[in-house]
Amino acid sequence: EKAGHKHFMAKEIAEQPIVLADALKAYSSNDAKGIALPSGTIDFTKCDRITMVACGTANLACQVAKYWFEQIAGLPVDVDIASEFRYRKPVVSDKSYALFVSQSGETADTLAALRYAKERAAMILSVVNVPESSIARESDLALPIMAGVEVGVASTKAFTCQLLALAALALKAGHQRGHISDAEMAKHMDDLNLLPGILNQSLSLEKAIERIAGKIASAQDVLFLGRGSMFPLALEGALKLKEISYIHAEGYASGELKHGPIALIDKTVPVVVMAPTDELFDKTVSNMQEVMARGGKVVLITDAEGAKEASDGVWQTIVMPTISPFLAPILYAVPAQLLAYHTAVAKGTDVDQPRNLAKSVTVE
Ligand code: M6R
User: What is the pTM of this model?
Assistant: First the structure.
Protein backbone atom coordinates (compact mmCIF):
# COMPACT_ATOMS: atom_id res chain seq x y z
CA GLU A 1 0.00 0.00 0.00
CA LYS A 2 3.09 2.22 0.01
CA ALA A 3 3.20 1.59 -3.74
CA GLY A 4 6.89 0.71 -3.76
CA HIS A 5 7.94 3.60 -1.50
CA LYS A 6 9.77 3.14 1.80
CA HIS A 7 7.34 5.36 3.68
CA PHE A 8 3.83 6.72 3.27
CA MET A 9 5.33 10.19 3.35
CA ALA A 10 7.45 9.42 0.28
CA LYS A 11 4.42 8.02 -1.52
CA GLU A 12 2.33 11.04 -0.60
CA ILE A 13 5.00 13.49 -1.77
CA ALA A 14 5.25 11.63 -5.09
CA GLU A 15 1.47 11.58 -5.57
CA GLN A 16 1.15 15.34 -5.59
CA PRO A 17 1.16 15.93 -9.36
CA ILE A 18 -1.72 13.46 -9.73
CA VAL A 19 -3.88 14.63 -6.84
CA LEU A 20 -3.31 18.28 -7.77
CA ALA A 21 -4.38 17.56 -11.34
CA ASP A 22 -7.56 15.91 -10.03
CA ALA A 23 -8.28 18.80 -7.68
CA LEU A 24 -7.66 21.31 -10.43
CA LYS A 25 -10.13 19.53 -12.67
CA ALA A 26 -12.71 19.66 -9.90
CA TYR A 27 -12.20 23.43 -9.43
CA SER A 28 -12.14 24.36 -13.15
CA SER A 29 -15.18 25.55 -15.09
CA ASN A 30 -16.24 23.48 -18.10
CA ASP A 31 -14.55 25.82 -20.56
CA ALA A 32 -11.38 25.72 -18.36
CA LYS A 33 -11.27 29.53 -18.41
CA GLY A 34 -12.42 30.07 -14.86
CA ILE A 35 -13.10 28.57 -11.45
CA ALA A 36 -16.22 26.55 -10.64
CA LEU A 37 -16.49 25.24 -7.11
CA PRO A 38 -17.03 21.48 -6.79
CA SER A 39 -19.68 21.96 -4.08
CA GLY A 40 -22.13 24.86 -3.92
CA THR A 41 -21.53 28.54 -4.61
CA ILE A 42 -20.11 31.51 -2.74
CA ASP A 43 -20.63 35.19 -3.36
CA PHE A 44 -17.50 37.02 -2.25
CA THR A 45 -19.08 40.41 -3.02
CA LYS A 46 -21.25 39.93 0.08
CA CYS A 47 -18.41 39.93 2.60
CA ASP A 48 -15.88 42.54 3.60
CA ARG A 49 -13.36 40.30 5.38
CA ILE A 50 -12.37 36.66 5.73
CA THR A 51 -11.25 35.16 9.00
CA MET A 52 -9.21 31.99 8.48
CA VAL A 53 -8.56 29.63 11.35
CA ALA A 54 -6.58 26.38 11.49
CA CYS A 55 -3.73 24.56 13.23
CA GLY A 56 -0.26 23.49 12.15
CA THR A 57 0.34 23.04 8.45
CA ALA A 58 -3.29 23.90 7.66
CA ASN A 59 -2.70 27.25 9.40
CA LEU A 60 0.32 27.83 7.19
CA ALA A 61 -1.84 27.20 4.12
CA CYS A 62 -4.11 29.98 5.45
CA GLN A 63 -1.11 32.26 5.85
CA VAL A 64 -0.26 31.78 2.17
CA ALA A 65 -3.91 32.36 1.25
CA LYS A 66 -3.84 35.72 3.04
CA TYR A 67 -1.27 36.98 0.50
CA TRP A 68 -3.42 35.63 -2.34
CA PHE A 69 -6.77 37.05 -1.22
CA GLU A 70 -5.33 40.45 -0.43
CA GLN A 71 -3.42 40.66 -3.71
CA ILE A 72 -5.94 39.08 -6.09
CA ALA A 73 -9.26 40.01 -4.48
CA GLY A 74 -8.51 43.08 -2.35
CA LEU A 75 -10.16 41.29 0.55
CA PRO A 76 -8.73 41.72 4.05
CA VAL A 77 -7.87 38.40 5.68
CA ASP A 78 -7.16 37.58 9.33
CA VAL A 79 -5.38 34.32 10.01
CA ASP A 80 -5.54 32.77 13.43
CA ILE A 81 -4.35 29.71 15.26
CA ALA A 82 -7.46 27.83 16.37
CA SER A 83 -6.36 27.36 19.99
CA GLU A 84 -5.84 31.14 20.29
CA PHE A 85 -8.93 32.15 18.38
CA ARG A 86 -11.33 30.02 20.41
CA TYR A 87 -10.42 31.60 23.75
CA ARG A 88 -9.58 35.15 22.75
CA LYS A 89 -13.16 36.37 22.31
CA PRO A 90 -12.26 37.56 18.80
CA VAL A 91 -14.47 40.12 17.10
CA VAL A 92 -16.15 38.44 14.14
CA SER A 93 -18.45 40.74 12.21
CA ASP A 94 -21.65 39.59 10.53
CA LYS A 95 -20.26 40.84 7.23
CA SER A 96 -17.31 38.48 7.39
CA TYR A 97 -16.93 34.93 6.20
CA ALA A 98 -15.09 32.49 8.45
CA LEU A 99 -13.00 29.81 6.78
CA PHE A 100 -11.60 26.73 8.52
CA VAL A 101 -8.91 24.58 6.98
CA SER A 102 -8.34 21.04 8.24
CA GLN A 103 -7.09 17.88 6.60
CA SER A 104 -8.86 15.58 9.06
CA GLY A 105 -11.83 17.83 9.71
CA GLU A 106 -11.69 16.63 13.33
CA THR A 107 -9.09 18.88 14.98
CA ALA A 108 -10.65 19.80 18.34
CA ASP A 109 -9.49 23.41 18.48
CA THR A 110 -10.48 24.11 14.88
CA LEU A 111 -13.93 22.62 15.45
CA ALA A 112 -14.40 24.69 18.63
CA ALA A 113 -13.32 27.82 16.75
CA LEU A 114 -15.85 27.02 14.02
CA ARG A 115 -18.63 26.73 16.61
CA TYR A 116 -17.66 30.12 18.05
CA ALA A 117 -17.69 31.75 14.60
CA LYS A 118 -20.99 30.11 13.67
CA GLU A 119 -22.83 32.42 16.05
CA ARG A 120 -21.24 35.49 14.49
CA ALA A 121 -19.96 35.25 10.89
CA ALA A 122 -22.17 35.57 7.79
CA MET A 123 -21.00 32.24 6.43
CA ILE A 124 -18.94 29.28 7.58
CA LEU A 125 -16.69 27.82 4.92
CA SER A 126 -14.31 24.95 5.29
CA VAL A 127 -11.55 23.43 3.21
CA VAL A 128 -11.26 19.78 4.21
CA ASN A 129 -9.88 16.48 3.01
CA VAL A 130 -12.44 14.27 4.77
CA PRO A 131 -15.89 15.23 3.42
CA GLU A 132 -17.83 13.41 6.15
CA SER A 133 -15.84 15.01 9.00
CA SER A 134 -17.32 17.13 11.80
CA ILE A 135 -15.87 20.36 10.42
CA ALA A 136 -17.31 19.65 6.97
CA ARG A 137 -20.73 18.75 8.42
CA GLU A 138 -20.97 21.87 10.55
CA SER A 139 -20.01 24.26 7.73
CA ASP A 140 -22.41 26.13 5.44
CA LEU A 141 -20.16 25.10 2.59
CA ALA A 142 -17.39 22.49 2.75
CA LEU A 143 -14.87 22.53 -0.08
CA PRO A 144 -12.99 19.29 -0.72
CA ILE A 145 -9.24 19.25 -1.38
CA MET A 146 -9.30 15.80 -2.99
CA ALA A 147 -5.88 14.74 -1.71
CA GLY A 148 -7.02 11.18 -0.98
CA VAL A 149 -6.14 9.45 2.28
CA GLU A 150 -3.04 10.93 3.91
CA VAL A 151 -1.36 8.46 6.27
CA GLY A 152 1.96 10.13 7.12
CA VAL A 153 1.68 12.28 10.22
CA ALA A 154 3.63 15.00 8.42
CA SER A 155 1.18 16.63 6.08
CA THR A 156 2.42 16.87 2.48
CA LYS A 157 -0.12 16.33 -0.28
CA ALA A 158 -2.90 17.72 1.91
CA PHE A 159 -0.94 20.98 2.21
CA THR A 160 -0.48 21.45 -1.53
CA CYS A 161 -4.10 20.47 -2.20
CA GLN A 162 -5.26 22.93 0.50
CA LEU A 163 -3.22 25.59 -1.26
CA LEU A 164 -4.77 24.70 -4.60
CA ALA A 165 -8.32 24.98 -3.23
CA LEU A 166 -7.45 28.28 -1.52
CA ALA A 167 -5.85 29.65 -4.71
CA ALA A 168 -9.02 28.73 -6.60
CA LEU A 169 -11.12 30.53 -3.97
CA ALA A 170 -8.90 33.62 -4.12
CA LEU A 171 -9.21 33.71 -7.91
CA LYS A 172 -12.98 33.27 -7.69
CA ALA A 173 -13.15 36.10 -5.16
CA GLY A 174 -10.92 38.32 -7.29
CA HIS A 175 -13.05 37.76 -10.36
CA GLN A 176 -16.37 38.24 -8.58
CA ARG A 177 -15.15 41.45 -6.97
CA GLY A 178 -13.87 42.83 -10.29
CA HIS A 179 -10.23 42.79 -9.19
CA ILE A 180 -9.18 40.54 -12.04
CA SER A 181 -10.51 40.60 -15.59
CA ASP A 182 -11.66 37.62 -17.67
CA ALA A 183 -8.33 37.71 -19.50
CA GLU A 184 -6.33 37.75 -16.24
CA MET A 185 -8.42 34.90 -14.95
CA ALA A 186 -7.79 32.88 -18.12
CA LYS A 187 -4.03 33.51 -17.75
CA HIS A 188 -4.13 32.27 -14.14
CA MET A 189 -6.00 29.17 -15.33
CA ASP A 190 -3.30 28.52 -17.94
CA ASP A 191 -0.67 28.82 -15.20
CA LEU A 192 -2.65 26.47 -12.97
CA ASN A 193 -2.89 23.93 -15.74
CA LEU A 194 0.90 23.86 -16.01
CA LEU A 195 1.27 23.28 -12.26
CA PRO A 196 0.99 19.44 -12.09
CA GLY A 197 3.64 19.05 -14.82
CA ILE A 198 5.98 21.56 -13.17
CA LEU A 199 5.52 19.87 -9.81
CA ASN A 200 6.37 16.58 -11.45
CA GLN A 201 9.61 18.07 -12.81
CA SER A 202 10.52 19.29 -9.33
CA LEU A 203 10.32 15.71 -8.04
CA SER A 204 13.28 14.85 -10.25
CA LEU A 205 15.41 17.00 -7.91
CA GLU A 206 14.98 14.36 -5.22
CA LYS A 207 18.48 12.86 -5.53
CA ALA A 208 20.13 16.28 -5.32
CA ILE A 209 17.99 17.19 -2.30
CA GLU A 210 18.80 13.85 -0.66
CA ARG A 211 22.51 14.68 -0.90
CA ILE A 212 21.95 18.05 0.78
CA ALA A 213 19.78 16.42 3.44
CA GLY A 214 22.69 14.09 4.23
CA LYS A 215 24.76 17.16 5.09
CA ILE A 216 22.00 18.83 7.10
CA ALA A 217 21.35 15.74 9.20
CA SER A 218 24.22 16.57 11.57
CA ALA A 219 23.03 20.13 12.24
CA GLN A 220 21.57 21.15 15.61
CA ASP A 221 19.59 24.09 14.26
CA VAL A 222 18.34 25.07 10.84
CA LEU A 223 16.81 28.40 9.83
CA PHE A 224 14.39 28.87 6.95
CA LEU A 225 13.92 32.30 5.39
CA GLY A 226 11.37 33.62 2.90
CA ARG A 227 9.61 36.84 1.99
CA GLY A 228 6.05 37.50 0.89
CA SER A 229 4.13 34.30 0.23
CA MET A 230 7.44 32.43 0.72
CA PHE A 231 7.43 33.42 4.39
CA PRO A 232 4.73 30.85 5.30
CA LEU A 233 6.67 28.33 3.20
CA ALA A 234 9.73 29.01 5.36
CA LEU A 235 7.54 28.27 8.39
CA GLU A 236 6.30 25.07 6.74
CA GLY A 237 9.86 23.98 5.86
CA ALA A 238 10.86 24.43 9.49
CA LEU A 239 7.76 22.67 10.85
CA LYS A 240 8.25 19.69 8.53
CA LEU A 241 11.92 19.36 9.43
CA LYS A 242 11.40 19.57 13.19
CA GLU A 243 8.49 17.18 13.32
CA ILE A 244 10.15 14.29 11.54
CA SER A 245 13.92 14.78 11.99
CA TYR A 246 13.76 16.33 15.50
CA ILE A 247 16.26 18.99 14.43
CA HIS A 248 15.45 22.37 15.88
CA ALA A 249 14.28 24.56 13.01
CA GLU A 250 12.74 28.02 12.79
CA GLY A 251 11.14 29.87 9.91
CA TYR A 252 11.50 33.63 9.68
CA ALA A 253 10.43 36.39 7.36
CA SER A 254 13.72 37.37 5.70
CA GLY A 255 13.27 40.98 6.76
CA GLU A 256 13.15 39.93 10.41
CA LEU A 257 16.65 38.49 10.29
CA LYS A 258 18.26 41.65 11.61
CA HIS A 259 15.75 41.87 14.43
CA GLY A 260 17.11 38.88 16.27
CA PRO A 261 17.79 35.58 14.52
CA ILE A 262 20.98 36.82 12.83
CA ALA A 263 22.61 36.42 16.26
CA LEU A 264 22.33 32.64 15.80
CA ILE A 265 24.25 32.53 12.55
CA ASP A 266 27.60 30.79 12.42
CA LYS A 267 29.12 28.06 10.26
CA THR A 268 27.21 25.33 12.05
CA VAL A 269 23.76 26.70 11.16
CA PRO A 270 22.40 25.86 7.71
CA VAL A 271 20.03 28.56 6.46
CA VAL A 272 17.51 27.51 3.83
CA VAL A 273 16.49 30.48 1.70
CA MET A 274 13.33 30.06 -0.37
CA ALA A 275 13.55 32.60 -3.15
CA PRO A 276 11.93 32.19 -6.56
CA THR A 277 12.62 35.18 -8.83
CA ASP A 278 9.79 37.56 -8.07
CA GLU A 279 9.57 41.23 -7.20
CA LEU A 280 11.04 40.59 -3.74
CA PHE A 281 13.95 38.45 -4.93
CA ASP A 282 16.65 41.11 -4.60
CA LYS A 283 15.62 41.90 -1.07
CA THR A 284 15.76 38.25 -0.05
CA VAL A 285 19.16 37.92 -1.70
CA SER A 286 20.53 40.82 0.30
CA ASN A 287 19.34 39.09 3.51
CA MET A 288 21.03 35.94 2.28
CA GLN A 289 24.28 37.83 1.79
CA GLU A 290 24.09 39.07 5.37
CA VAL A 291 23.89 35.44 6.45
CA MET A 292 26.88 34.45 4.30
CA ALA A 293 28.93 37.39 5.58
CA ARG A 294 28.58 35.87 9.05
CA GLY A 295 29.72 32.44 7.94
CA GLY A 296 26.21 30.95 7.62
CA LYS A 297 25.83 28.01 5.22
CA VAL A 298 23.10 28.90 2.77
CA VAL A 299 20.93 26.39 0.94
CA LEU A 300 19.33 28.52 -1.78
CA ILE A 301 16.12 27.22 -3.33
CA THR A 302 15.44 29.26 -6.43
CA ASP A 303 14.89 28.97 -10.20
CA ALA A 304 17.48 29.06 -13.01
CA GLU A 305 17.39 32.85 -13.26
CA GLY A 306 17.79 33.25 -9.51
CA ALA A 307 20.64 30.74 -9.42
CA LYS A 308 22.44 32.64 -12.17
CA GLU A 309 22.08 35.89 -10.33
CA ALA A 310 22.74 34.88 -6.76
CA SER A 311 24.46 31.55 -6.24
CA ASP A 312 27.97 32.99 -5.73
CA GLY A 313 29.22 31.93 -2.33
CA VAL A 314 26.12 29.87 -1.65
CA TRP A 315 26.81 26.49 0.04
CA GLN A 316 24.16 24.49 -1.86
CA THR A 317 21.71 25.55 -4.56
CA ILE A 318 18.51 23.74 -5.50
CA VAL A 319 17.42 24.89 -8.95
CA MET A 320 13.65 24.66 -9.26
CA PRO A 321 11.61 24.83 -12.46
CA THR A 322 10.32 28.32 -13.28
CA ILE A 323 6.75 29.08 -12.26
CA SER A 324 4.43 32.09 -12.03
CA PRO A 325 5.09 33.93 -8.74
CA PHE A 326 1.44 33.44 -7.72
CA LEU A 327 1.79 29.64 -7.73
CA ALA A 328 5.33 29.47 -6.37
CA PRO A 329 4.21 28.61 -2.80
CA ILE A 330 2.60 25.39 -4.05
CA LEU A 331 5.72 24.33 -5.96
CA TYR A 332 8.19 25.29 -3.22
CA ALA A 333 6.42 23.01 -0.76
CA VAL A 334 8.04 20.09 -2.61
CA PRO A 335 11.72 20.82 -1.84
CA ALA A 336 10.74 21.66 1.75
CA GLN A 337 9.06 18.25 2.06
CA LEU A 338 11.90 16.35 0.38
CA LEU A 339 14.53 18.07 2.50
CA ALA A 340 12.70 17.15 5.70
CA TYR A 341 12.00 13.63 4.50
CA HIS A 342 15.57 12.79 3.50
CA THR A 343 17.04 14.42 6.59
CA ALA A 344 14.77 12.24 8.73
CA VAL A 345 15.68 9.14 6.72
CA ALA A 346 19.38 9.98 7.12
CA LYS A 347 18.83 10.27 10.89
CA GLY A 348 16.85 7.03 10.99
CA THR A 349 13.78 8.47 12.71
CA ASP A 350 10.28 7.06 12.37
CA VAL A 351 9.20 9.20 9.43
CA ASP A 352 5.54 8.23 9.23
CA GLN A 353 4.93 8.08 12.99
CA PRO A 354 7.15 10.73 14.58
CA ARG A 355 7.44 10.58 18.36
CA ASN A 356 4.81 12.37 20.45
CA LEU A 357 2.66 13.30 17.43
CA ALA A 358 -0.79 12.15 16.32
CA LYS A 359 -2.20 12.45 12.82
CA SER A 360 -5.35 14.05 14.08
CA VAL A 361 -5.39 16.11 17.29
CA THR A 362 -8.91 15.48 18.54
CA VAL A 363 -8.25 16.62 22.12
CA GLU A 364 -6.98 20.01 23.27
O1 M6R B 1 -6.21 17.66 10.38
P2 M6R B 1 -5.76 19.07 10.48
O3 M6R B 1 -5.39 19.65 9.14
O4 M6R B 1 -6.74 19.96 11.20
O5 M6R B 1 -4.42 19.03 11.33
C6 M6R B 1 -3.75 20.21 11.66
C7 M6R B 1 -2.38 19.93 12.22
O8 M6R B 1 -2.45 19.07 13.33
C9 M6R B 1 -1.45 19.30 11.17
O10 M6R B 1 -1.35 20.06 10.00
C11 M6R B 1 -0.03 19.10 11.74
O12 M6R B 1 0.58 20.34 11.96
C13 M6R B 1 0.82 18.22 10.81
N14 M6R B 1 1.43 17.16 11.56
C15 M6R B 1 1.87 18.99 10.08
O16 M6R B 1 2.66 18.20 9.26
Answer: 0.97
